[in-house]
Structure formats: C-alpha cells, structure tokens
Write a structure and sequence with these properties.
The structure is a single chain. The chain has two domains: 90 residues, Winged helix-like DNA-binding domain superfamily/Winged helix DNA-binding domain (Arc Repressor Mutant, subunit A, Orthogonal Bundle); 66 residues, Ferric-uptake regulator, C-terminal dimerisarion domain (Dna Ligase, domain 1). The protein is an alpha+beta fold. Helix content is 44%, strand content 14%. It is globular and about 50 Å long.
Length: 159
Amino acid sequence: MSPSEERVARAEALLREQGKRITPQRRLLLRIIEESHEHLDAEQIYLRAKRENPRLSLSTVYRTLAVLKEAGLVEQRYFARDHQREYFESPRMPEHYHFTCIGCGRVIEFETPRMQQLKLELQENQAVQVTHACVCLEGYCADCLAQGRKGKRIQLTQQ
C-alpha cells in the first residue's frame, strides 16, 4: 500500500469514527488531494475527479469538501487578500504559510518558528486559545524582481 493509500485509509477510518459514511465521492476526493503536490481549488479537484467519475457534479465536490474540511481531513487556504478563491490541501503537511508573487502568480510555501512564538504570545497576553493560523503574504518573487516585472501585477484570483 502506497503512503497516499495509507493516508486515505486512515482518513476513511476517521470518517467512520465520526459517524460519517464513506462514499465513493469522498474516497475519490481524498485520493486526489492526497496525491496532489499542487494547490488545488474546487474546480481543479472537480476536473480531475470527473475524469474518473463523469457523473460527478461540481456541487457534490463542494459538499464533499465541506464534509472533509469539517472532519479535519482537508485544509482550506486563501492565497490572495480578496479571498475569492479557496485552495485545498492535505493536513499531513507541517504547519506552513504561503507567499504569492503578484508578478507571476507563483506560490511559495514557507515555515517559520515565529508563528509559534506569535501564537504563544497572543495566548498569554489575551487569554485565548489559538487553534489555527493563516498567513498570506504577497509581493514579488526573486525571478520577477530580476526580470523587472515589479509593478506588473497579475490578477491572482485567476491562477
């Protein structure tokens, strides 16, 4: 069994523990997300899933993603300040954040111990419990800066 198949099997077990059914659509979307090394939005997931299940509808994909998100099996991300497009990824990855180049649209993932420090500081100073952090940085990547693309902003919601 491949690592991806093992993660899908664990996800199915978690769904069962939560009293949720294991539908073919849930299994298919879990597999697509687990096997992907890209940031996929709902429409991209739909197009990949439709190759295997031509009868699948986009509304089923959205409903299934909502169930998987509620179960903690997918994480929803935004890469632009307007939050017009949601991207989904597996929670198997360590906590990380995204920098989006507004010149070319490239998304760069990064990790930083400073977020843990910030969460602890907030918890101590405000007596809150931080359960999730979402940081979305925008600017120009090194390639765009080197090629003089700074100032030529793309529409990030059309990635």
